[in-house]
Amino acid sequence: MDRWKEISKYVGLCVGVALLIVFFRWGEQGMMRHQAMKTGPVEFESIPNWVTQDLRMELVTLVGGAEFVLREGIAQQLGQALERSAWLDQVRVQALSDCILVKAQWRKPVARVMVGDSSYYLDAQAVALEALDLPTLPIVTFKHAQDATNVPWGTVVQSEDILAGLALVQAVTEMDRVMAQKARQSGQEVKSSLLFELQALDLSNFNGRANKNKPHLVFQSKEGTTVVWGAELGAWGRHLEAPDDVKLARLFTYYHHDRLLQTGPPRPRPSCNCICPKGRPFNPSTVIDPDQRRATHETLIDLLFGFGLDAGGLRNLGVLAPGRHPGRLGLERL
Predict the structure, then answer these.
(1) Distance in angstroms (rounded) separating the CA atoms of residues 178 and 314
(2) CA distances (Å), 221 to each of 80, 190, 202, in order?
(3) For residue 200, what are the β-bridge partners?
(4) Between the N and C ends of the chain, which has fewer C-beta atoms within 10 Å?
(5) Does residue 103 sit in helix, strand or coil?
(6) pLDDT per position as a tens digit, 275-317
(7) In this structure, what is the dihedral angle of CA atoms 220, 120, 230, 284, given to the nearest 10 degrees?
């Protein structure tokens, strides 16, 4: 009898251990099934404030939803989908415990190219983007580009006149950035971007192709003021125009000091004598006598010092040669 009791205890112990194994195995599989079904949203590390809800929804449609099962391989799948978007560059996707994290560089439109009744955007690298409504961005419209055709989004545009227009817009953008930075550092009011006032850039006479005696590049402001830029960046010497840095200084003086690109009655001419009354063309590319070039260049440095630029900022704009210091010209910060 005692022997049978010992056998039954042994059998019961074995059965208990077997049940525990089955229970833990079942629980482990249940946990795995639960983890396999766990979902999480797609989240971007940073989204610029100019990105609209419509653009966000375009990306949601591209990847097939805003939330996904956090399974193996989902990061690679979404990364391949997002790489097809022209709006994103250097896309990296990582599946975390509670979401799918996307790190990417956003392509910011700076210009719009008109092609008949349609148009497309360009970023600073001349990558074509869909012309969505982006009301918070200053986007200059390029008109009368010779080789303008509709191109697939993500294509790099190679047209010479369009690239010349982009270079000019980038020069104005950089000048805007420098002015804003210096204004913040000195506690002054940060003025809105000049590009918000410039509506269009006429490329019809790029490189003098229509008429060699007329200006090559001409801006039009939103208030109707014509701003004659002149030759393409770097070509001022061949056409006996003012240097590009002088043109930029005149343009920003005209805008920041006198504001005649905006609505309002004409004001008296300032001492720099760089503006015309409202409704008449403003021409920053006026010919400069070679004998007066040094004096004009020093005046430009003096003017930019008045905006708060230091020697480093002048060199970044190409106004001051490396190794030189404004103090050697007898200039002081205003």
Answers:
(1) 10
(2) 42, 20, 11
(3) 141, 220
(4) N
(5) strand
(6) 232 334 445 555 444 444 454 455 555 545 544 445 555 445 4
(7) 50
